[in-house]
Amino acid sequence: MSQEPFKVAIAGLGTVGGGTVKVLRDHADVIAKRCGRPVVISAVSALSKDGLDFDVSGYEWYGDAVDMANNCDADLLVELIGGSDGIAKTVVEAALSAGRHVVTANKALVAHHGAALDKLAEENNVSLNYDAAVAGGIPVIKTIRESLAGNNITKVQGILNGTCNYILTTMREEGRDFADVLKDAQELGYAEADPTFDIEGIDAAHKLAILASVAFGVEINFKDVHVEGITHVSAVDIQFAEELGYRIKLLGVALRHNGTVEQRVHPTMVPLSAPISQVEGVFNSTVIDGDAIDTLVLVGRGAGELPTASAVVGDICDIARGLSVPTFSVPVNELKQVPTRAMSEHVGAYYVRLSLMDEPGVFADVAAALRDHNVSMEAMIQRGREKGKPVPVVMTTHETSEANMTAALAAIEALDKVVEPPRMIRIENA
Ligand SMILES: NC(=O)c1ccc[n+]([C@@H]2O[C@H](COP(=O)([O-])OP(=O)(O)OC[C@H]3O[C@@H](n4cnc5c(N)ncnc54)[C@H](OP(=O)(O)O)[C@@H]3O)[C@@H](O)[C@H]2O)c1
Predict the structure, then answer these.
(1) Which domain holds residue 420?
(2) Is 249 one of the annotated active-site residues of the chain?
(3) Which CATH number fits the domain that encloses residue 253?
(4) Is the CB of residue 47 below 6 angstroms from any atom belonging to ligand 1?
(5) Chosen domain end from 301, 317, 332
(6) CB 324: neighbour CB atoms within 10 A?
(7) How do residues 315-348 score in pLDDT, each as one tens digit?
(8) How far apart are CA 51 and CA 59, in angstroms?
(9) Is the dihedral of CA 195, 201, 202, 204 positive or negative?
(10) Is ligand 1 within 6 A of the CB of residue 48?
C-alpha cells in the first residue's frame, strides 16, 4: 500500500458534511485498504464550529470556503454547502481551477451548471463526481456511468424525493389529507420549514435532469423538465387508485425518443405489481431500462446523514484509487443538445376523477367528449348516488396522447353537469 495519503478538504459541515467526516474517520482503516492509500481529511470549512458533534481540531480550519478551495493542502474538495449559485458554485469553480478534484451532493448546482463545471474539470484534468446528488445513498450515477456503460439506455424513472414519498405513503396508510400530513412531516424533520422545492417537484426535477444527461449522453436541460408537485393529490384519489390496482407516487420519468428527450416529474399512478409501487416512506428508487440489462431496479435511502455520506465517500474513494470516468458518461464535447419533447406529445394512459350531477344523459355527454377526442375508456367507478348532489366518478383510459386528453378534459369541464374541474393523473407502467 502506498503511504502517500490522499487529502480531502470538506466545505460545509451540516448533515451531509458531518456524516462524511464521521464515515471517513470511523472507516479510515478499511478505506485505506480499499483505496490502496490512506484517505485523510486535511481541511474543513463552515460558518462556525458551534454545534458540531464531532472533533475538527485535527483539521486545518477555514472560515472562508473559497479561501480553502484556493489555498488548502488537499487533492480533492467536497462541496456540501448547497444552493445552485452563490458560494457553492464559487467554491467548486475555485477548487477545479486550482486543479483539485471535486465531489458534491449538490443537485441544484449540477442541474443548473453541470455542463460548465464539467468543462472546467476537463480543462484542469480533474474529476467531478456527484453520486450523492441523485437519490442520496443509491449509487445510481455510478451504476449508469460504469456498470451499464455497455447499454443503450432508453428510459430512467424513479421516486427521487423522500419527502414526497413519505407524505404520499402516510396519506394512503392513514387516509389523511396532504396539508395535514405535511405539517407532521415538518415536525418530524422529514420536510423543510419551507417545503416548496420538495413538494412542488423541483428537487426531483433537478435529479431527473441529471439522470437524463448521464443516461442518454445529452446536455442537462433542467429548465424544460415538465414539473408538477404533489400539492393537489387528495386522499380520495389515493383511495380510488388503490381500488383500481395502482399506487400514487411522485415519479420522475426520462425517455429517449428519436431526436428528443421526454423529461417529466408529476404524480403518477403505478400498478401495484410494479416493484416501485412498494417503495414506501422516505425510501427512493430508480428503474433503468437498457437494451442489454432489460430492467434494473435500485432501492435505498435517498437522504440522511450517513446514507448520503456513503455515496460521497464512494465518490472520494474512486478518485483516490485513480479511477476517472467522464462526468456525464461521455466527454463534455460529445454531449448532445437535444430538445425536450413537448408534453402534448406524451402518450400514455390516464386516471380522471369527475364530480358530476348524476342526471339522465350526463354519462353519454362525458362519453361523447372522450370519443370526439379519440380517448377510449378502460374502467369506470361511480360511488354513491344522492339526488341533487354531485357524485364522484373515476375512470381510467387506454393509451392516448396528452393533446387528446387535454382537449377531452376541456370539453368535459364545459359540460353544465360537471361541477368541478376534472382531476387527471398520468398512469405509468413502471
Ligand atoms: N441532507 C440530505 O439528506 C441530503 C441528501 C442528498 C443531497 N444533499 C445535498 O447536500 C448538500 C448539503 O446538504 P445538508 O443537508 O448537509 O445541508 P446543511 O445541513 O444545511 O449544511 C450546510 C452546511 O454548509 C455550511 N455553510 C453555509 N454557508 C457556508 C459558507 N459560506 N462557507 C462554508 N460553509 C457554509 C452551513 O453552515 P451553518 O450550519 O453554520 O449555516 C452548514 O454546515 C446540499 O446540496 C443538499 O442538496 C443533502
Answers:
(1) 344-427
(2) no
(3) 3.30.360.10
(4) yes
(5) 301
(6) 14
(7) 999 999 999 999 999 999 999 999 999 999 999 9
(8) 17
(9) positive
(10) yes
